[in-house]
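re: ur question from the group chat, yeah i did fold both. here u go
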Amino acid sequence: MSLQAPSDIVMIRPHAFRSNPETSGDNAFQVAGDGPEIAARALAEFDTAVETLRNAGVTVHVFDDFGDRDTPDSVFPNNWFSTHAGGHVAIYPMFAENRRRERRWDVIDMLKRAYRVQDVIDYSGLELDGLALEGTGAMVLDHIGRVAYVARSRRADPVLLERFCTHFSFEPMAFDAADEAGRAIYHTNVLMGIGTDFALIGLSLITDPVRRREVADRLAETGRAVIDLTPAQIAAFAGNAIELEGERRLLALSARALEALRPDQIAVIERSARLLPLSVPTIETAGGSVRCMIAGIHLSRRAVSKSERIAA
């Protein structure tokens, strides 16, 4: 098993999916869209993605969002909580007001029941001070090398980043990143994804050439193959992928992302992971893709007691 690749995940089924107007200002990947037909397509894409992941041996905990609290981005739960080896859970402050309503304690209660949770550190109250750190969207975490890579944005407050890294023993590595039109990258996980033996990253989007080299070197120091993605590949969500452990090690990414990868890049990935494409074109109109849909569980499972086995 790899520290980087969780075998268990949380996903939120969106019953009232739509593009979020409160996040469109800084999310250049987002396309406006609303209505029952769009919601129905997103729901079907979600259910097929869950089935594909489960068939590949991944344990998927699904929670339904019935759309009664105006949570258009609920399908992206990795932004409001994360889990960490040793039994630690973090809950994050969100930038957009309607995204704050995505936090739900039934998810945390499930984690406490099914996994060994030592503590829950809740940063969400810092929203009152105008601070945001949107989980593993804002941070791409190297769980092996203990580095938190962060593209600077209003969704990744530097003071809160330092606090998180102190609490969870990560080294912060922040940088500025922008697309070809000069628009800042809103979440780091659309720019890069880290696996056990490789890293996907759009290096050319890191604006400072010195910092660009430092980031590439830091990734290579861990023995990973650095797969440099073009701006067009980043726009196709090729960086928004997550390594998982199923029947074997997997790289979950969207079908669109896989189509954007070159054969030589695919060959590097397939040396250590099987590519698992998921077709989510409607969900991608909200400005996120497969990695955003998946909250990995980096916790140890609890042993099932005799009484629990009888009840089951």
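okk and heres the other one u asked abt
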Amino acid sequence: MRVLWSVRASARHYANNTFIANVLLHKRYYKPWGATIGLELHVQLAAAQKLFSAASAKWDDPPNTNVDFIDAGLPGSMPRLNPECVSLAARAILCLNGQVQPRSSFDRKHYFYSDQPLGYQITQQRHPIGRGGFIELSQADGIDYTKRVRIHQLQLEQDTAKSVHGVYPGYILTDLNRAGVALVEIVSEPDMETATEAVYFVRKMQTLLRHTGVSSCNMEDGSLRCDVNVSVYRGDEDRLSGTRCELKNLNSLKTIRGAIEAEVSRQIELISAGHRVKQETRGFDAHSGKTVLARSKETAPDYRYMPEPDLPAVHISKDWVEHIRSSLPELPEATLSRMTRQYGLLPEDVTTMLGEPGCITFFELAAKGRDPKRVAAWITSEIFGQLSYRAQRLNDSTLTVQQFTGLLDALASNAVTSGQAKLLLIEFMDGDKRTADELIQARGWEVMSDLGRLQDLATQLLGKHPKEAAEYKAGHKRRLNFFVAKIMAATKGQARPQDVSRVLKECLDEK
């Protein structure tokens, strides 16, 4: 607290100097501790074939069915660079505001483990394909200030095989389908200071890479994996002075937040107790909420990097880079600005739709000639709710734009009730191929528009429940809901609730 006291004293001493007082009283100087956070993201590219072989990149096919000689590390096999992966990597660095390098090359990173058949990983440690760039975090992303996180580099590399545990007790099985699948590793500068900033950085990265077709970025299936580097410092120290620990294989936004907060607390407790933070690689135990030691932190010499002798350098022309740049779709920030202006949508709704691949196109097709706010509300609540329940992506759903717009039009023309429209949506997403009109007719879901029939039902109902009717007349207005529910059940949901309420009120007033 000595630092905090001295800052306050200095602020009082320089009270006549507004500029100095404001600097001294800035919120960062009130923190007795600070954290320095950098991320390494491993992103599987959406390429049809692997990085250095013609084998399919479908790693979730039956085990060991998509394997070429180089993927299995067979002697004499040679890598051959897949140009589609180079294009996707270039798209990635360009959408991150970085630069495609005119010359890049590959290195061997040596380590021995069962998931690495070659005994080394082919990567781009020294001369990556992309450098520079940044991601800008702002209010649209969920924070109440602006934060720029710089990108250090983006490099192409091959993925490892998948280790399978628990099939045969005491054995670890190896599935080579994932070995050699193309990755880009995106390394940020240590610009983040909180777990919240790190989570929003990853979430915005997901949106960018999905939107530009670089990757599906699904953390749940491993197509986006995250390592975090964390150090702490006292408020009066250089923010880069702390000892860095790496947290490996964090596979969800919740895990990233929990791991960073736990590691920051651990390091602060160590230093406060007079101990030294050791440079380590650690994991996160979600059950205990603590980070656990995995191994001492390796450094570059431990991996014995050497130039890859079997692959030539990659030379990229300015014209090719401009061709890739011109093929990029409208980037999310531009889409957010345009859609809030063009359709009058809330930024949060646009941001939510941007996070789902294909959703912006789906929305714009559905919104033609319709209320865009109503379309957006149905997408972000009802459709996204169904997708979440089914653990499904919109692009993989059987729901078509034509079915969805038919549903909206039927609802707008009072052909169905809101409840029936939700049932239509469920049937469409269960795989029914019929149109909204066909399904409404088949289910007998036409809205009851005969108010005389509703009046007869209301009169009969009030006669059967005189006690509840008297309570309503005595001022217990919520009793109306009791009668509405009864009539909705009697009509099997085919009456509009607003019509039922109006008829009931008229009958009760007359009574």
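fwiw on the second one: The chain has four domains: 1-30, 31-315, 329-443, 451-510. The first helix runs from residue 2 to 13. idk if thats what u expected
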